[in-house]
Amino acid sequence: MMGAPPSVLDTLGALALAGWTVAMWAAVAVLAYANRGPVRPWVYRAAAAQIFLGILGQLGHVQEHVAQVGYWVGNPNAPAWMTPWGTGLADGFGQLDRSKPSLGMEILHFTGNLLFLTGIVGVMLITHRAVRSKARKWARMGVWTQGFHGLEHLVLMLTVWLGAPRAIGLSTWFGLLDPGPGLWTYRIWWHFVANVVGSVIFAIAVYHLWRERDRIAATHRPAAAGSEPGVEPALTR
After folding, report:
1. What transmembrane ranges does the database entry give (predicted)?
2. pLDDT digits over 111-170, tens only?
C-alpha cells in the first residue's frame, strides 16, 4: 500500500545524501590510488577532510539511533520511531519502489553506514605509511566492525528490495520474529549498540590520530636531505 508522495524537500535531501556518500567513496578510491605512488603532500589534507566529513556524517547517523532508543524508553511497546528528518529522507529514498513501505528506511540506514565507514577508512588512508601508529590499529578494528555492520544493512536492504515479506538479517533474527514489541525492541537495541561501539572505536582512532599528527604528517612530506621519502619517523615514546 502506497502512502502520500514525498515532498520535493524529501527528494532533494535523499539525493543530496546519496550524492555525498558516492562522492566520499570516490574520494576513497582516489586517495587509495594516490597512496600507491610516491609521496603526495595533498593526500594528507584530503584524507583529513575525508575524516572530518565522516565524523559529521556519523554524528547525524548516530543521533537517529539515540533518538530511537530515547523514544523506546518512554514507549517500549510502540513500533520503532524515526525523527522527522529521518522519516523525510526515508520517504525520499522510498520512491525507488513505493510498493515496499520499509525500503526507504533500509536504504537510508545502509547509506548512513556507508558514509560512516568512509570516515574510518580515511584514518587508514592517512596512516598508510605510519603502519605502527595506534590510530591505524584502531581504524583497522573500526573497518572490520563497521564493515560487518554495513554488510548487515546491505542484507536487510536487499531482502526487502527483492520482495521478502520482512527484512532478513541478524538484527531481525533472520526474519523469524513476527512484527511486534519483541522484534522492535531487539532491532532498535541491536543497531544502537552496533553504532555506539563503532562510534567509540572511531573516536579513539581520531584521538590517537590527533596525538600522533606530527609523526603521521611527516610521512606525507617529500624527502629531506639524506632521508627516504614517506618513511615513518621512529617512535619517541
Report:
1. 12-35, 107-127, 148-168, 188-210
2. 999 999 999 999 999 999 999 999 999 999 999 999 999 999 999 999 999 999 999 999
pLDDT at residue 85 tops 90? yes
* pTM, to two decimals: 0.90
Q: Radius of gyration of the chain from Cα atoms?
A: 20
Query: What span, in angstroms and rounded, lies between the C-alpha atoms of 231 and 131?
Result: 10
Contact present, 220 and 230 (Cβ < 8 Å): yes
User: Any idea which residue has 511497546 for its cell?
Assistant: 77
Q: Which of 27, 101, 103, 113 is nearest to 65 (CA)?
A: 113
Hey, is 227 helix, strand or coil? coil
pLDDT, one tens digit per residue, over 24-79 is: 999 999 999 999 989 999 999 999 999 999 999 999 999 999 999 999 999 999 99
C-alpha closest to that of 117 among 94, 76, 81, 148:
148
Tell me how far apart the alpha carbons of residues 233 and 80 are, in angstroms, rounded to a whole number: 50
C-alpha cell at 191: 543497531
Alpha-carbon distance 71 to 79, whole Å? 10
**Dist CA 113 CA 94 (whole Å):** 17
